[in-house]
């Protein structure tokens, strides 16, 4: 083979490699790479390579668009290989000052002390500390101890005086009580009351007693919180006519919040007790043992009073006192677990056990310190009797080179088109900088999932809600329900799942487009018993009904009739009340089986509850008259002053299109307003806002002709309308800007409603001596270009690459094929007016269409190359399909 032949083959081979490289993607900079093209609000995609050395875990990734996230939050999203000090990546502690066996610490706010231990393979055997404070009595807690600084208060002053602090504590339903009910043996009567932080409470109620014998403990009061009874006391004897009775419950409440105060008569007590209560109005009480699903069916005359904290004085934090205030937990065991989780039992370089001190202004002395432990160096045991003041510092993280996926940062580009500079910093130090281009429509974003409270062991349909103005065509969703059942994929926004166990689960949802993740979010779902799920779901539905009612009331009065055709809010409320009544009857029976609750839960699940009113679709596009829609006779029929020269229809249309381009700019803002139900979505109305901007004052009115009967249209104001033969005409001023707003019932696409704008026909200049030639069709000879030498060598590979690239490129530009054919139809109509391609591009670029989409549609329409050079094996069928789709999308369609 001669040198020229070898050179040709080499060039051809180079071209093939180049084409493959273009299709498959380029290799980025080893230090990082950022994708350059984005839709509005899309997540930043790419990667950076970084290594870390003793970097603070709270270091911030920040970008030039105002996004930020902590370093440790990013590292926890994947199985990146890194190590922290301390090992759990939480805050660390540094000792300061002298180590002393007795230390006085001035407190006003928060302070930290700590014990520092040394030794390998260290195990804590026992622990106790003594404290002494000069703080006096107070209605506020003088001191809180948070051992290990984990956010949980482990000790608070349990001593109290008989003085009351603040006013009496009553339920939010508290009112006058005039009824009396007999108290049954061992039956609890409970009222929900918000209890503040306090060392103890006086519990009070009003009772009658008609008996003669009374023993201390015959009738008791209780406090119920966090799933159990936490304090009790014996009430005093009531009188026969009714009197207030009370007792003090020694319960150090460390967290303010709702609790239940209950009373109960012991089975050994005599009969004749009555409780003051009511059964009308709003309720905050119920009989029986409280739970998270308690239905309030009555209101009892039960109140409480908070007691005053006594002086602190001296006290010990030891096993006994710690256990009393921490539900039986062990102080020693807690410290030992801390050493394991934070230091892996390796205290060769020192382990600090922190204690957070919080309180009012006081001097606190720490003494009598005794922490016993074993280690490799002291297998027989050692003790620590000294303490430091310590300061809190962030944990540090170290690693080799990590390839950080920027999607883990969840940073999004702005909702503004154009070229931007993206800069990523870590603690103010620039990591990477790159130019990016933001074009096209908004990418889908996940907002919420529903429901979030579900019944265990029952199939549940979950729905994901997304941005209403995003294109969700060709999107699939990947669900992980956090119960080790693997991923589920759905091609719609719904999926069914059944939880087999009670508990809280993290549900992650990913939106996937062409195999690429475009958004993801994680939500907490609570799987509870059917009995509790019914109660929680009814409560949730009531809130949503209230929200929906507000949304409906704020809806334009013109759209209210269309909404009422879809939902009757009174009927929804009635159905919900009926289900709630059935649920209360099951509760009141006391012997209801689980299967009966399951049956009612299924009824509730089948109830297609409306939950929101929102825009399903929003579109803003330029409007150009479609010559296929223009009918001169329609203008004459609607507007009596109009007439035209017969036989010159095409000349009039051509003149009208030219007038349109030279004199007005028109934009359509279109939205579909919908009701979202638990099991479906229904469209209320489709609103069209036609904005007409004359380029200069024209001195006459024009006409907007809508090919729809006015009885099917809703206008937001009284326009100058004409109606005839199923047409609606509106006179519009052409001296200044004017907005015409109207709506059609149901979901109507922006291209589905045929309409056009015309000046008075006499304003059109018609050349009666010139024939208007029909637009010529496009040949397909331009498609074939000479790549036969390349095809001889790479025929099989190239055909595959050609079709793969063309398909994926088109799907990349047009998620919905309907958009492509609408755009091509628009371009074809504009060309028929005589608009140049530059003019068409100028009109389109002001809306959602990107330059790349416009060029593709024009090339596709002209039969030009849209990607790689083509072997036109399928060209004939593709051209036929394109022509059919354009014709189909161009046809006027009636809406109703």
Topology:
Layout: H1 3-24, E1 32-34, E2 37-38, E3 46-56, E4 60-63, E5 68-70, H2 71-75, E6 83-85, E7 92-100, E8 103-120, E9 123-133, E10 143-147, E11 155-156, E12 160-169, E13 179-182, E14 188-195, E15 201-209, E16 219-225, E17 228-234, E18 243-249, E19 257-265, E20 273-278, E21 285-287, E22 299-300, E23 302-309, E24 313-317, H3 319-325, H4 331-343, E25 346-375, E26 378-384, E27 387-393, E28 396-405, E29 418-426, E30 429-438, E31 446-450, E32 453-455, E33 460-466, E34 475-480, E35 487-490, E36 494-497, E37 503-513, E38 516-528, H5 530-554, H6 560-566, H7 569-589, H8 594-606, E39 610-622, H9 632-638, H10 649-663, E40 664-677, E41 681-694, E42 701-706, E43 713-715, E44 721-724, E45 727-733, E46 738-745, E47 755-758, H11 788-813, H12 817-833, H13 837-845, H14 851-862, H15 875-890
Helix pairs in contact: 1-11, 5-7, 5-8, 7-8, 12-14, 12-15, 13-14
Structure description:
The chain has 896 residues and is of the alpha+beta class. It has 6 domains: 101 residues, Immunoglobulin-like; 150 residues; 150 residues, Jelly Rolls; 163 residues, Immunoglobulin-like (Sandwich); 150 residues, no CATH class; 108 residues, no CATH class. The strands form 9 sheets. Strands 7, 8, 9, 10, 11, 24, 25, 26 and 27 form a 9-stranded antiparallel β-sheet that branches. Strands 12, 13, 15, 18, 20, 22 and 23 form a 7-stranded antiparallel β-sheet that branches. A 5-stranded mixed β-sheet has the order 2-30-29-4-5. The radius of gyration is 38 Å and the shape is globular. The chain starts with a helix and ends in a 6-residue tail after the last helix.
């Amino acid at each position: 083979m001669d040198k020229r032949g070898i050179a040709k083959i080499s060039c051809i081979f180079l071209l093939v490699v180049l084409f493959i490289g273009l299709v498959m993607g380029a290799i980025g900079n080893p230090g990082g790479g950022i994708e350059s093209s984005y839709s509005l609000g899309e997540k930043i995609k790419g990667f950076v390579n970084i290594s870390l050395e003793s970097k603070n875990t709270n270091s911030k990734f920040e970008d030039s668009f105002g996004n930020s996230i902590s370093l440790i939050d990013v590292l926890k999203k994947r199985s990146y290989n890194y190590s922290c000090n301390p090992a759990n990546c939480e805050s660390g502690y540094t000792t300061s000052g002298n180590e002393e066996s007795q230390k006085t610490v001035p407190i006003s706010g928060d302070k930290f002390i700590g014990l520092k231990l040394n030794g390998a393979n260290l195990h804590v055997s026992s622990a106790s500390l003594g404290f002494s404070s000069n703080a006096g009595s107070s209605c506020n807690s003088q001191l809180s101890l948070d051992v290990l600084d984990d956010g949980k208060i482990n000790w608070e002053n349990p001593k109290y005086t008989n003085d009351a602090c603040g006013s009496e504590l009553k339920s939010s339903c508290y009112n006058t009580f005039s009824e009396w009910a007999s108290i049954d043996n061992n039956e609890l009567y409970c009222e929900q009351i918000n209890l503040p932080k306090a060392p103890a409470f006086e519990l009070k109620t009003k009772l009658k007693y008609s008996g003669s014998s009374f023993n201390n403990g015959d009738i008791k009061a209780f406090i119920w919180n966090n799933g159990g009874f936490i304090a009790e006391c014996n009430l005093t004897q009531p009188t026969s006519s009714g009197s207030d009775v009370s007792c003090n419950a020694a319960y150090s409440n460390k967290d303010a919040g709702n609790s239940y105060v209950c009373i109960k008569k012991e089975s050994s007590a005599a009969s004749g007790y009555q409780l003051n209560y009511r059964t009308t109005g709003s309720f905050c009480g119920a009989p029986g043992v409280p739970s998270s699903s308690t239905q309030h069916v009555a209101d009892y005359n039960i109140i409480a009073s908070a007691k005053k904290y006594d002086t602190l004085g001296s006290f010990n934090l030891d096993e006994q006192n710690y256990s009393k205030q921490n539900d039986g937990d062990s102080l020693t065991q807690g410290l030992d677990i801390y050493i394991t989780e934070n230091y892996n039992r390796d205290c060769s370089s020192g382990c600090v056990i922190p204690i957070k001190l919080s309180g009012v202004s006081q001097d606190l002395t720490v003494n009598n310190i005794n922490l016993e432990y074993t280690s490799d160096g002291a297998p027989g045991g050692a003790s620590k009797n000294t303490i430091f003041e310590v300061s809190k510092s962030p944990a540090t993280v170290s690693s080799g080179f990590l390839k950080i996926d920027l999607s883990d940062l969840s940073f999004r580009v702005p909702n503004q088109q154009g070229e931007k500079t993206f800069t990523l910093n870590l603690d103010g130090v620039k990591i990477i900088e790159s130019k990016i281009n933001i074009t096209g429509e908004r990418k889908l974003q996940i907002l919420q999932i529903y429901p979030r409270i579900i019944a265990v062991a029952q199939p549940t349909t979950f729905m994901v809600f997304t941005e209403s103005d995003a294109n969700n065509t060709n999107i699939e969703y990947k669900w992980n329900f956090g119960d080790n059942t693997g991923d589920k994929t759905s091609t719609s926004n719904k999926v069914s799942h059944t939880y087999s166990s009670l508990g809280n689960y993290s549900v992650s949802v990913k939106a996937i487009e062409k195999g690429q993740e475009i958004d993801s979010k994680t939500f907490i779902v609570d799987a509870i018993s059917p009995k509790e799920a019914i109660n929680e779901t009814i409560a949730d539905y009531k809130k949503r009904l209230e929200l929906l009612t507000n949304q409906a009331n704020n809806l334009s009065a013109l759209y209210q009739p269309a909404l009422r055709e879809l939902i009757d809010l009174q009927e929804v409320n009635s159905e919900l009340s009926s289900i709630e009544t059935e649920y209360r009857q099951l509760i009141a029976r006391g012997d209801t089986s689980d299967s009966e609750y399951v049956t009612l839960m299924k009824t509730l699940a089948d109830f297609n509850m409306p939950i929101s009113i929102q825009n399903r679709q929003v579109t803003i596009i330029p409007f150009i008259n479609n010559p296929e829609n223009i009918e001169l006779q329609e203008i004459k029929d609607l507007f009596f002053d109009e007439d035209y020269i017969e036989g010159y229809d095409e000349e009039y249309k051509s003149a009208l299109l030219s007038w349109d381009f030279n004199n007005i700019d028109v934009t359509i803002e279109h939205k579909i307003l919908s009701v979202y139900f638990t099991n479906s979505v229904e469209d209320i109305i489709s609103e069209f806002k036609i904005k007409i901007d004359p380029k200069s004052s024209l001195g006459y009115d024009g006409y907007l002709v809508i090919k729809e009967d006015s009885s099917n249209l809703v206008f937001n104001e009284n326009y100058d309308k004409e109606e005839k033969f199923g047409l609606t005409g509106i006179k519009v001023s052409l001296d200044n800007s004017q907005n015409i707003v109207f709506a059609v019932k149901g979901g109507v696409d922006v291209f589905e409603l045929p309409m056009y704008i015309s000046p008075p026909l006499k304003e059109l200049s018609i050349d009666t001596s010139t024939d208007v030639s029909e637009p010529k069709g496009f040949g397909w000879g331009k498609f074939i270009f000479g790549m036969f030498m390349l095809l001889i060598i790479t025929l099989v590979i190239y055909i595959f690459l050609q079709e793969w690239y063309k398909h994926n490129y088109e799907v990349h530009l047009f998620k919905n094929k309907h958009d492509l054919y609408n755009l091509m139809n628009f371009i074809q109509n504009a060309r028929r007016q005589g608009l140049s391609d530059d003019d068409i591009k100028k009109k389109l670029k002001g809306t959602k269409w990107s330059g790349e989409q416009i060029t593709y549609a024009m090339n596709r329409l002209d039969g030009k190359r849209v990607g790689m050079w083509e072997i036109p094996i399928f060209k004939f069928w593709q051209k036929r399909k394109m022509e059919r789709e354009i014709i189909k999308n161009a046809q006027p369609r009636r809406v109703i």
